[in-house]
Structures are given as C-alpha cells and as structure tokens.
Amino acid sequence: MLDSAFLAWLRTTTEARWADPSLHDGASVGLGQPAWQPATRWRGGLSDSDLRIVEAMFTVTMPAAYRRFLTALHTPDPPLAATQVRAGRIVRVEERLFTDWTGATTPIIAAFERPLEGLLRGVAIGRWHPAWGDRPDDERERLRRVRRLAAAGGRLIPFAGQHYLVALPGRDDGPVIAVRGADAAVIAPDVRAAILRELGLADPDLPGALGEWDAGRASGGAPPGPGGLERIPFWSDVVDGLPWMPPTVASRP
C-alpha cells in the first residue's frame, strides 16, 4: 500500500543515499549515463489545486495512489545529469526520472502521444493482434481501428521515461507498463512497486529480500509476467505480442 508511512520512509531512504559522498566520487556530473547529483532532494508535493490544473490541462484523472505520491514527493531536484559526447562535442545533459508535471508542457504532451504513435508505426508495417478482428487491407482503416480501440482502453499516464501508469476507470491504483514502439511489457503491478523499481530499492515490508518484481530488476532480467493481474483493456493485447502480418500474407483468402 502506498501510504504516508511508506512515502516518509522513501524520502528518508533516498535522500540519505543521495547525500552519501561515495555515490558521487567527488564529481557532480559523471561521464556516461545520467546519475544523481549531489544534494538531490525530493521537490515536495503538488497542491490539490496544482493537480486539478494538471488534470484539466492534459484531460486526465490521476489514480488515487499516484495522487498520494505527487502530493507528497512529486519528483527529485536537481535532475539526473551526465557529461556525454554528442556529435563530436562534450555536452552536459539532464533528464528527469519521474515526470515533472510543473515543467514544460511540450515534453509531457509528447510523452502522452508517444505510445500510440509508436504502436501505429508498427501497425502500418504489419503488426496486428487477432483480438482486433480481421486485419483490414487498407492501411488507413487499420490505423483508424487501432486508434478507436486504444481510445476505449486504459489511459496511459507518463510515469518515468518510457514507463506508463495505466489509469483504469474506478481504480485507485494501476499497473505500470513499458511501451517501446509496438512492444509493451508490464513492469510493476502498482504505483508502489513501480517507484521502488525505478529507484532500485527493495520493499521495506520485505526485509532481507527483494519482492519478485524487484528481483527481476536486480538480476538484470525482466520482472515476471503479470500473472494474476487482470487484463488491461487494449494494452494487454500489445503486451501479449503483436504478430507480424505482412500485407502479402494478410490479404490472402
């Protein structure tokens, strides 16, 4: 359960780790993958009025569990940072782990649109799920049908990078899925497990052991399948895997 005790533990644990000098090795920004910067702390929660503005701006209703996270912690500051070589130049890059709902709107809008855009590119070149019915020969009709089915499915809320919280009507929580192009996978059964996964932490209610979802991350592999989780309208079809159906095959009688 994502309650105030868990969120207080999360703040204390993460901020103590971010304050550890050994984490930074004397450098504020490392060369390579983005890493936590010295003195990183949670920004602090959004107000109820802030959340209402966010929900109205992006036409979304945040599940109750995610609202509790946003009103208590929201996102760490400063962002992850690194020094990288791009186009032959050494540049400093920064990126957020968790979505910053008070930041620029353009990246958030793009994050909302990305899963469906990637899926539609896959559908255009031959990906299709049998549950969607007979595959139309006309590409435009295929795209229209998938758009219609996706609109009736759970809303995907940008959670962390390419990981999305599925908002289901009448549900206070939801699974988190990774979506890349026309492929998707359930990576956490709920918001609490997803937060722990992103931060590489074991569940404090499972002392001395990682939960099965966390164990998958720690071992470098994928977490176990959603076994026991109810199907997610539309997106579970994508999680199942979309077979390739080239037009020359799909159009055969």
Structure report:
This protein has about 250 residues and is an alpha+beta fold. It has two domains: about 1-45 and about 75-105, no CATH class; about 105-253, no CATH class. About 40% of the residues lie in helices and about 15% in strands. The protein contains nine helices and nine strands. It has helices at about 5-20, 50-60, 65-70, 105-125, 140-150, 190-200, 210-220, 235-240, 245-250; strands spanning about 30, 40, 75, 80-85, 90-95, 155-160, 165, 175-180, 185-190. Strands 6-7-8-9 form a four-stranded antiparallel β-sheet. A hairpin with a 2-residue loop joins strand 4 and strand 5 (about 90-95). Helix 4 (about 105-125) packs across helix 5. Mean pLDDT is about 85; it is low at about 210-225 and about 250-253.
Oligomer: single chain
Structural class based on helices, strands and sheet pairing: alpha+beta
Kindly report the spatial arrangement of strands forming the biggest sheet: 6-7-8-9
- Share in β-strands: 15-25%
From the alpha-carbon coordinates, what is the Rg to the nearest angstrom?
20 Å
Order of helices and strands: HEEHHEEEHHEEEEHHHH
Brief synopsis:
The protein is an alpha+beta fold and 253 residues long. The protein is 38% helix and 17% strand.
Topology, element by element:
Elements: H1 4-18, E1 30-31, E2 41-42, H2 48-58, H3 64-72, E3 76-77, E4 80-86, E5 89-95, H4 105-124, H5 139-152, E6 155-160, E7 163-167, E8 176-180, E9 183-188, H6 191-199, H7 212-218, H8 235-240, H9 247-250
Parallel strand pairs: 1-4
Antiparallel strand pairs: 2-3, 4-5, 6-7, 7-8, 8-9
